[in-house]
Amino acid sequence: MLLVLLFWIGLAGTQQVQHHSSTGTDRRVEPCFVDDAVAALREALQTDGALSNSSLTLFGACRAPDPSSRSTLLVLSEERRRWPDGGLKVRQPAAVFATEERGVVTLTFDLPASSLLEMNLLLLLLAFESPAAAGDLEVTFSSRFLLPHSQSACISEGTLYVLLMGRSSSSSSQHRWTISAEAKSPRMNQNLIDAIIGGKPGGPVGVTPLLLFTGEEGINGSRPAAFGSSGVPVQTSFVCELRRFLEGVLPQDQDKQPLLQLDSLQALPPLPLGLSSSETLLAALINSSAPTIFYFNNWGSKSQGLRGQLILSPALLVELRLRLEQSEMLILDLAEQETVSPRTTARLERLKDLSASQQMEAAESHFCAFLLLKALKTVAHAYDMTRRLRSTRAGPDSPPKGNICGLRSLTVSFEKLLLGPQSANINNCRGVCSFPLINGNNHAILLTSHTESVAEERAPCCVPVAYDPLEVLDWNDEGSFLSIKPDMIARECGCR
Predict the structure, then answer these.
(1) Sheet strands (E) in 111-175
(2) What Gene Ontology cellular-component terms does the record carry (predicted)?
(3) CATH code at 256?
(4) Residue 145 lies in a domain
(5) Is there a single domain that holds both residue 192 and residue 272?
(6) Could you read off the pLDDT of 403-412 as tens digits, one per residue?
(7) pLDDT tens digits for range 227-275
(8) Same-domain status, 188 and 122
């Protein structure tokens, strides 16, 4: 019987002789912490061929040709097909301590009381709070609880996780584990200390262990029910998967932008979304093509018990499913054109499965399906706008339009949101207004004629003349609300 442990390691620069666990405000207390870690492992193993180099780097796997020194990730990848179908069960140990003596870091933590400790496989994943940046670091982890007792990891730039494999702990005397970590090169000792201990004086330990079990269920996580049994609510898993989906499928702007506050924008009165929402409102939202920002900024780890609920009539439910099918076709087309990552379609399938999970009540399932539809329409709007902007620059039967007044891309970034999207393309209008005027009105025509002889007056300017709204969906302790922010996205330009 085997066990694998998962650690979340926070990188910092100050060494502490001893640290203890704490409830600081970092990524480890986010509601998606556990789900993101398990999803990274699941997606790394969902491959028909050899593990990719990016997966090996992500999990600190050593590329040693000697089979005896292969990483746990490689072993799991080869043995995954033998396991029964299902998902991971997750438990989080308590009372984590870290000490350092002569370059050797020792981690001590208590295993939670659980019958899962006697299951077939248990993994310990060491997860960094941010990608390692201290160069190549080869580390040996040793413990009588590991199987084998010594295991290697190769941490480099881009490494977020390290997997260790251990044995089950059915004896009560084995409910406290001690694992030592030592750099194979003494000159890298400080890098190891900074990576695993890190933190400020008196701060939390840099490692959060997670125990991942597979029993009669396997590791590929194809069934959402496993997440309910792991202690993570299915609706939380859905929201976390939705965030990963949006991050992977939406066009990314690489330029750093100043962060803008959504609350500073004018908006129509917020509309409560819940069991009492009218069918007229829900029908309008289902048929709306406006993009949506999921503003779950107050949805923290303490909010995992929140339940979003909607009741859709049979007719609205049919309409919702039809719209979902139509929107899904766009994602499949993008995947065929290799416009999006192959993982996008797998994430979409998982979202569909989670939204239909039998572990949720019908009202919760309807709410998740509604969120999925709004997310897919946001993706559709983004790619449709990309095509429109491309066509304004030059059509197949027309020359480039040069500096004539027209629509141009303009991306703005919002304050850090739990879900996203973190940015939006609001577009802008730029270019010269000259005869023949683009979308010019009578005033612009007369103004252009007048300024040809009277230079003191301003000439017509290229400005937006039509807009699309932006919908903002907020989910907090008071419930879920949708607010419409009008005139947000420039759709057409004209000379005024």
Answers:
(1) 121-128, 137-142, 150-155, 161-167
(2) extracellular space
(3) 2.10.90.10
(4) yes
(5) no
(6) 889 999 999 9
(7) 444 456 788 889 999 999 998 888 776 667 788 888 888 899 999 999 9
(8) yes
